[in-house]
Amino acid sequence: MFNPEVNSSGFFNYLKLNKTCMLIGELFKILNKSATKTVLINEGGNAISNASRINQENVAATMEVVYKKLLPLLGIRQNNTALLGSTGKKLPGGTSGDVDLAVDKQLIMKVNRLKDTKEFYDFLIHAAERLGYEFNYLKGLGIVSIGWPIESVDGKQDGEVVQLDIMPSDNLKMTAWGMASPHQSVEQYKGAVRGELLYWIANEIDYKALKQQANELTGEIEDLEFERTIFNGMKGLYRIKQSFLSPKTGKRKANKWTVGRKLIEDNPEAIAKLFFGPNASTKNLISAKEIWDAMMSPEFPYPDKRKSIVKNTIKSLTKSGIDYPPYFDEYVQSPLNERTATTFDSPRKSMTKIHQMKASEFVEFLQALKDAGVTSSKKFDLSEFNASEKADGQGVRLVCYDGKIGIESSYSGVVFNPGATRQESFRETLLYFQNQEANNLLQIAKSANTWYKITGELFYVNDEGIIDDDSGITFVATKYDSKKMGRIGAMVVFDVSGITPDGQLVKLEPNVKKQIVKAFKGLSNPEFKIYDDSNFAWSGEITLEIDYDTDMMNRIFEEPAVLLTKECKKHFKELQMAIADAFSREIRKKGSVLGLSDSEVEGIVFEINGQKYGATNFNWAEKKKEYWKSQDAFFNRIAEFLKMLTGFVKREKVYELLKAPDAKIHYELVYQKELPRFLADMQRLKDEFDNDTSIPRATKKQQAKFLETTYKKVMKLQPRLSSLRAFVRPT
Length: 731
Hints:
about 20% strand; Beta Polymerase, domain 2; 4 domains; 27 strands; 25 helices; alpha+beta
């Protein structure tokens, strides 16, 4: 039997000499031959003096040494650990302040025959001592911090150390999910956003007031004693009892205290189902966006708690100076009545793209292609898999319910009042359909004998000065032909759902859905053009040819253990990107249905056995990067400035440092010195953006709204440290 720990290096060196060009169908021949089950890989104040942030490029090599040197001292293996937070999940060029490594405490105690917690920490401290590196035992937190030498793969961190925090866990499975953080390519927001959402969901699902009284001044009823559930990412769900009443006097105190605390659930899958319904799974609840989508789903068991959860999350994140997605604010500011919000809202669901798939998802995708008959003799038939162009506009839902016309963005919830939405595109589109097409939309409902929701993509054109000189209009990175849009805009219909009289979303019979789409398309006119997915459908066959090693793939699927090696992870990812590139090449040949001749289509959407997949045109991705570079540079310069002042980029960390009593001594002089240069740089970046004529007008206008708001805040900065604190942590 092949031993990956001993023989993998020689094996892969051999493979490098055996590259051949193969069709994707040949890969499936290998899959068919495989007799063994494939093992899948899942992605998941300084305690140390002179510790540095670690560059993303150096994380993998550094952790490899950690696993090799530290884990044998503890008597455990890598699969008995979990790398927490965002370390190793940053984009190239990113950094992490420290490394949080959870270890299986119970296993370490069992393997090393340790009797109690004291012996465990004595053992852990001794292991740190044996390494010979600087370390610190943070007793209050139960963490042992080690100054671990950075493996300087990029050649930029020779001789530097990173703070490695060893975090013992009594429930590693719970900790790995509870403290999870997605890759930065998936989500830009901090893991704290996800954590706060989970915390407040737990708080709201079973809150029970035990003692109450009327406030003497306001007359409002206040809870004096209550029970609630709290989410602990390391351990699970606790049921706690808290009180404002003094145990001695029985009078109300200013602050609450905890009377009792009991662990009620430590199984992450059970918690996921308790929070989000019986079909929820932890594997789909890693990012804040995934948590949000699950919370906005009709399956969410606590719909009447949504706004309270979001409001408390916003309040907590704002207090800590942590950025959160703008759709949080949009949701709580909507005056929509809760009955509607809890029944037929349709939160945005992200589509799995080939290049972003986890290893497990990618293997499932390959298996789906094989099962669908895509082989060397049968190419990928676009029409067979309902392939269509990925529209590069704004996700929109148009609602006809209870005699009213409403609209919904990806995150807003359904809105019937045009004044309730801050986005001009959705407000004006809603006004158009309410004022011009309401009778027609109601007639469609009457003819189909159902209320309905139309899901599609919105292209809003009626915005001054956003059409380029060549008649193109670029919302993100695809250049569309404005002449194929209406004066106000256009909409592409992708799906229609029914709405029952009591406000429940239901699937429609195919003939009823077809009837509604046909009637809705009939409303197309020079003011507002309407298309459907048939207009965006692609036909023909494509050949998914990839340059890859057949022998290597054969070994991978015959020897699943090989997947556990560092070498194989690299090659496996290469295969994934090779297939993504093959799709990208074919996508570029097609072009956009509504685009100009030189436009780049965003991508392709296709369906296999009811599961939708997406493939990206990487040329489009590069254009998007280029068009949005100014916004990225703007916010990167702010982060760089804060890091230069304090050594941190986390806003909450910066704020804590700046509010310390001796902060003025440490930071004010350097702040006063560097502030003019920072302000000059921000002015320069703004001027460069303002004068950049290469950015399409529609794209530029979108960025300008965000940049102008941030620019005004920056320019209010004064040489006083209090001014910086206000900027870092706005109230």
